[in-house]
Amino acid sequence: MAGVTDRPFRQLCRAQGAGLVVSEMVSSNALLWGSEKTRRRIDHSGEGAPIAVQIAGADPVMMAEAARFNVGHGAQLIDINMGCPAKKVCNVMAGSALLQDEALVGRILDAVVSAVDVPVTLKIRTGWDTEHKNGLAVAKIAEQAGIQALSVHGRTRACAYRGAAEHDTVRSIKAAISIPVIANGDITTPEKAVAVLQHTGADAVMIGRAAQGRPWIFREISHFMATGEHLPEPAPAEICSILTAHLHNLYAFYGEYTGVRVARKHIAWYSKGQRSGNAFRQHINQLESAEAQLQYVQDFFNHLMELEVLAA
Ligand SMILES: Cc1cc2nc3c(=O)[nH]c(=O)nc-3n(C[C@H](O)[C@H](O)[C@H](O)COP(=O)(O)O)c2cc1C
Fold it and tell me: Rounded distance, CA 252 to CA 270, Å?
């Protein structure tokens, strides 16, 4: 997820049980590769294997070049974005806009697959809009092109993030192709993960937004799948310790100024649903230094721990 799955967050999700994590998308426009944003997106130091990088663009030659460039910078798996509905991406006919042009999809996939020796995977939506759900046709093109796994977000491009994701299309795709299929969209609990796996027959599930502020969802799902039982909710002390380590990693990765700002949204996600979370978020967004941010997080969770003791 652009703006979310930076290196610190990926490392955290992996430590919490995610089997595979993917970078924020890297544009295929080489003019942007020197930017600070891209420089961070291609920094994989200390990341565990397989290092998976997502690329976005609409020109087969540029996409092939982007794949080679990222493999040269450590990528061990290239994922192609044909799922992003963002205007910025779709206006240049990339992301999910590509689903409208199946011939071009084929040319991009062929070019990228033949450009690199690492596995290439593809992320799509179920189609362009509800009248043009061509996810199945695209899946067959992907299999033909040598794509190694396909992730399907159960919404069309036109749906953006509205309504509920549907997994019937994922089920039809899984039944029609023989490469691994990964189901994605609105999977927020261990039960939902199991239900989607059963309904679709998919080989894996992909979790996006539900990991924001809850990176332990991966271990919760693994545990539930292995035992049929739920792990207890992490206590405030554990959440505080996970968040504090996450913050230190953000400051180290972005530097203090940007790190403090990037951290705000993560802190807000972690505090969602916690008692006095609203007041906490309003105040923490005003703080400018790492020290003040860390201290206020500590104070907030100390208070939650005290309430927990009182309630026991
Ligand atoms: C802030 C944000 C950024 C995203 N960026 C990307 C992206 O760069 N590439 C991509 O394939 N999907 C991107 N997505 C889509 C997610 O990967 C996922 O398909 C979608 O959120 C549905 O899954 P979920 O319900 O588990 O979040 C993004 C989603 C969000 C909310």
Answer: 20
Instruction: Let me know if 159 is a catalytic residue.
Output: no
Beta bridge pairs of residue 56: 27
Percent of the chain with pLDDT over 90: 83
pLDDT higher than threshold 80 for residue 84? no
Between vectors from CA 156 to CA 154 and to CA 162, what angle results, nearest 5°? 80
On average, the pLDDT of the chain sits at 94
Which amino acid, residue 279? A
Q: Is the model more confident about 31 or about 185?
A: 185
Most ligand 1 atoms within 8 A of CB, residue of 9, 161, 209 to mutate:
209
Amino acid at 228: G
Bridge partner residues of 79 (DSSP): 54, 121
Q: What is the C-alpha separation between 72 and 6, in angstroms, rounded?
A: 19
DSSP structure class, residue 95: G
Does the CB atom of residue 232 touch ligand 1 within 6 A? no
Q: What is the pLDDT of residue 33?
A: 87
Give the pLDDT mean for 148-154. 97
Q: Residue 88 pLDDT more than 80?
A: no
At residue 80, the pLDDT reads: 96
pLDDT at 104 over 80: yes
Sole residue written with tokens 């261990």: 190
Tell me the best of 153, 157, 161, 167 to mutate to test the pocket of ligand 1, counting ligand atoms within 8 Å of each CB and taking the most: 153
The closest-lying atom of ligand 1 relative to the alpha carbon of residue 25 is 8
C-alpha 151/C-alpha 139 separation (Å) is 10
Greatest CA separation for the chain: 64
Specify whether the CB–CB gap between 121 and 150 falls below 8 A: yes
